[in-house]
Amino acid sequence: MLAILIFSFLLVILVAGNNSSAVSGTIIGSKMMNKSLALAITAVGYIAGYLLEGRFLQHAVNELLPFEPEYVLYAIIASFVIFTIAFFVKVPISLTMALVGSAIGLSLKLGYSSDARFLTEVIIAWIAAPLISVGSSYVFNDRLSKMRHGDIWRYASAIKVMPIVTAIFTAFTLGANTIGFLGDISGTAVFNEILISIGSVIGTFFFSSGIMKSVSQNMYMMKYTNAFSSQLISALVVEVSTLFSIPMSNTQTLTSAVLGAGLSYRAKAIYLKPFLYIVIMWILSPLIGMAFTYALA
Length: 297
What we know:
It is found in: Membrane. Pfam families: PHO4 (PF01384). GO terms for molecular function: phosphate transmembrane transporter activity. With 297 residues, this protein is mainly α. The chain has one domain (2-296). The protein contains twelve helices and no strands. Helix 1 runs parallel beside helix 4, helix 7 packs parallel to helix 10 and helix 10 crosses helix 11 (250-263). Mean pLDDT is 85; it is low at 211-221.
């Protein structure tokens, strides 16, 4: 259905743009790489993840949206409206969670019995992912801070390379999971894949929010090692979720990993208000999507 493809394309533009600063903000802000090159690498990461692993989310699409195209369109439109509003008012709503909530709302409205086992797995993963991210990031950063570095110059060189590698990996996992989820909804034809890939490029270069003050900066000022470990833990959690066909919000995992990194520095003041605000939005995102679709369908 052409309308589904169009709205999926528009959502990909917003998703790619909204996440580009989180993916490459560190390497741009630190002057490791100029903005154009960093965004180009980000876009390539999105497309590579989508084309190579996006198909892993097909199971999630089949379980959550087994409806006729006209009904699937309601879920896409609801998610598009919610995420568009959130995008422009800078409210951290998760598209992935809103879309899953929209699918559940559609099931309730149409009287369709969703696969309870799969929904349970998704909910458990949404609860477990931030906990794993916080714990893993805490331990990883604590170990890094206690390591002794014999060759300080080699260590400094590695520190400069690591954020670039993790930025590429983060873009890849987001392309595989969130963009892959949208791509699987729109269809797997070659034309669809090309259009979704083009949307990733457009969003990255023309709708990216630049180097904004992120939640990590609101919590505490991050070092290169903190940024590296937080992105790495977050990307690993999203990658594992992708392999198990679980739609996962990279905002959820990254924010949790940032919190874990901050907690590992016991003497550092951490501002929990931004994190708590985002947690509230995690809870509200699927509920808003569910209510919106139920009313729209």
